[in-house]
Amino acid sequence: MLPRTMSIVLSLVAIAVAASSAASEAGVPAYRAETGHCVLEWSDKPDSAEIEWMSREAATLYRRVAELLGEQPADKITILLEGPAERADGRRDYPRVDSQGRIHLFKFGPDAGSYLSALAHEMVHAFRIDRIRTADWFFEEGFAEFVALRADPSLAGFPWFDFPVTIVAGQWVAAGQGIPLSALRERHGQLNMACRAQSYSLRSSFFDWLGRTHGDKVVIATAKMQPAGSLTDYEKFFGKPFEELEREWRKALMAEYRAIPDADVLAKEFRQASPIQYQPVCSAGKDF
Ligand SMILES: [Zn+2]
């Protein structure tokens, strides 16, 4: 149970949506729905089933994230549903939280469900944006992924594409493409997006392992430090320096990976048949 009980109102009010008078930044009318804690705005007119479904999913994820973090923001979170990730000018857009704390989501296929794959992760950032200073983006991203794995264990979408965490993270390490966490921590700006196929899943696996071996509550307590993610906090909260924790995690990950009987078959399927095949992969010696 959580140390603090919160009353979370999940009333799906105002789901009856019409072309409201709200206008998006581009001057295009936005289609709006509100739950107890979220405001959803679509760039393209959604059908009523999508409105109801997305509102329900947003309310559920909000409740789970709030329960895990033991706190919630004072204001409603705005979620902007902006259509296909492929933009008209050929750019590809990525889910993110802007400086006002609004979540931007994009569709990665024809199905509106693909909006949801990043929602739990982005919601963690939106919960924390004005409240927690971060020492380190490695920690902040890893923590968002850790909470997302607990709040939304579906593993749909990037970087899992319906494969288990141990297979996805394990196969990078097994293939000699497991970027050292120290490099991801020290060179976040350079490696995070350029090596995103690897960076997101390796960090997720590390924080997931920290939670499983030291307790989820310890990871969550670490995240409440101001600033969160200082190198010295790993020793303080997990009893060992970062480098030692990294060595232990790699060893445990490889043992878990090798224990899956068809790990190499699944790894091949992940690399060759899932959408990860379209992502750039960074190589040892060249990129990290
Ligand atoms: Zn993030």
Strand segment count: 6
Proportion in β-strands: 5-15%
C-alpha geometry: globular
Structural class: alpha/beta
Order of helices and strands: EEEHEEEHHHHHHHHHH
Low-confidence stretches: 1-21
Radius of gyration: 19 Å
Question: How is this structure best summarized?
Answer:
This protein has 288 residues and is of the alpha/beta class. It folds into two domains: 19-128, 2-Layer Sandwich (Zincin-like), CATH 3.30.2010.30; 137-278, no CATH class.
Describe the protein.
The chain is α/β, with parallel strands linked by helices and 288 residues long. The chain folds into 2 domains: 19-128, Zincin-like, CATH 3.30.2010; 137-278, no CATH class. The protein has 11 helices and 6 strands. It has helices at 48-69, 119-128, 137-151, 165-174, 181-186, 188-191, 196-214, 216-223, 231-238, 242-259, 263-273; strands at residues 19-23, 29-34, 38-42, 77-84, 96-97, 103-107. It has a 6-stranded mixed beta sheet with strand order 1-2-3-4-6-5, with helices on one face. Strand 3 (38-42), helix 1 (48-69) and strand 4 form a beta-alpha-beta unit. The protein is globular. It starts with 18 loop residues before the first strand and ends in a 15-residue tail after the last helix. The model is unreliable at 1-21 (pLDDT under 50). Residues 121, 125, 141, 144 line the site of zinc ion.
